[in-house]
Amino acid sequence: MDAEIEVMKKSLKLPSNVSIEVLCDAEYDKGGWVVIQHRFNGSEDFFRNWTDYESGFGTLDGEFWLGNENIYQLTAEKPREIAFLMEDFENNKAVARYATFKLGDKAEKYSLKSLGSFSGTAGDSLTRNVGSKFSTRDMDNDKSDSHCALLYFGGWWYDNCHLSNLNGKYMKGTTTVYAQSMCWNSFKGFHYSLKISRIMVRF
């Protein structure tokens, strides 16, 4: 896995009858994947507000978040498989996959309703967040007395607060700050910012 992944753009009709342009991966594990997040150089700011995360930001040619409403629509008809692909600055790769990913709708604050069984090499740093609503710097929906999105500089399904933060600060490798970077604790810990993150839903 690297920044120049084997992908193609296509138009996808969502259950809401809205068509959006998406990035599809036809190579990874027999294909059929829609990329919902891609980060590889820190060019896009992911410390964004609720509206940005809801509608999506960035470009399919660069770093981006597809948008919570679009991601919800991908899982509206049934739960989907999701894959979190990661790479560090020493070119070590890892993946975390879950069998039945499903988001709640806007009224449910795009809550992480289901993940299902885990598989992969990165370790499971997300299951504990099942049931958590999505939070951003201006929308505190977490289960903590503090404001996790502000503390950890991202938008995520924070509970109290996280074991993964793939929309956190893009830094480069080992960091002195705790859990603020683009991290997946069971892969590289809280003091390491990953080089590449790609999140995909099989649709």
From TrEMBL:
It comes from the Eukaryota. It holds the Pfam family Fibrinogen_C. Keywords: Disulfide bond. GO terms for cellular component: extracellular space. The keyword Oxidoreductase does not apply. Residues 1-203 form the Fibrinogen C-terminal domain. This is Fibrinogen C-terminal domain-containing protein. The lineage of its organism: Eukaryota, Metazoa, Ecdysozoa, Arthropoda, Hexapoda.
